[in-house]
Amino acid sequence: MIELRGVSKVYGQGRQEVPALRNVSLRVEYGEVFGVLGQSGAGKSTLIRCLNLLERPTTGEVRVDGRDMLSLGPDELRVARQGIGMIFQHFNLFSSRTVAGNVAFPLEVAGCSRVHIRERVAELLELVGLSDKANAYPAQLSGGQKQRVGIARALAPRPRVLLSDEATSALDPETTRSVLGLLRDINRQLGLTILLITHQMEVVKSICDSVAVLERGRVVEQGKVVDLIARPSTRLHELCYPTSSTRNGVVSQGGRRVELSLVGEHSTRPILTTLARRFGVDAWLLEGSMERVGETRVGRLLFELTGPREAVDGALGFLREQGLTLEAPHV
After folding, report:
1. DSSP 165-184
2. Would you state the CATH architecture of domain 241-327?
3. Per-residue pLDDT reduced to its tens digit, 45-90
4. Which candidate among 22, 57, 141, 152 keeps its CA 20 to 30 Å from the CA of 214?
5. Where do the domains of the chain lie?
6. Facing residues of 84 across strands?
7. C-alpha–C-alpha distance, residues 11 and 125, integer Å
8. Where do the ABC transporter domain residues begin and end (predicted)?
9. CATH fold of 2-227
């Protein structure tokens, strides 16, 4: 659905060159919610603008829904952009237009009939839960309601791709959860492919199927969110659990320190009790957490195993046989 191949973007020339993207490659599958996670200055906004050619890459290829975007002429590009919706951090609504008028705007530009516009606007306002706000103005809405208007407007031309540029970063946590739930519902109901950029780990854990971590204009890793979070050696795991490390300052008990990831059914099993009973080892719990990543339960345990070397080695072997993801450095 969306594919970037070796995309770089450089601003300026000569000594004034500023590289914003460096050889970025990523692929978003049909119907997927894909996140691009990075801090300010990582190149996220440049990347999303290169997707719809608001910025033209310096080098590389951009394909959306099978089209080579860089090969399109002005008229073809205008048509292609109708299939790419966009929602923004600060809503970008017309203050002089009602909610219905804002949603209708892209349909008016496209030359749709009044009957079609009226029916489509009513359908979209019902979808985002704002049917009773059709005649209200943006100044009369909360931040979450404004973002719902922005989502409805982006969906008006029936795009196959929806781009989200930090759409929840200006919202409070409860409203963020509500808007993310709406986006996930839209993804499922309409089969819409969504690419969102964010600096918020909670957004990635809540809604994204896959993620690319962007740092200084480079993709440092990408893959399924659950798989990356479950592996202690990944950058996403480090960002998700910034205190999880064998260097976290917890006093050692003189054993083998283990960081264990528990995904799905493994997260409900009494792992430490099983090790103690079966192998006669002591498990000193140092840190632990349990949460949901999308619809999957994911847990993390940091503990030390003490006891006879053979017993500790047997316990570690048992964990590996169970297919659990772990790191067991010597302490």
Report:
1. ESTTTTS-HHHHHHHHHHHH
2. 2-Layer Sandwich (3.30)
3. 999 999 989 999 999 999 998 889 999 999 999 888 889 999 988 8
4. 152
5. 2-227, 241-327
6. 161
7. 40
8. 2-241
9. Rossmann fold (3.40.50)
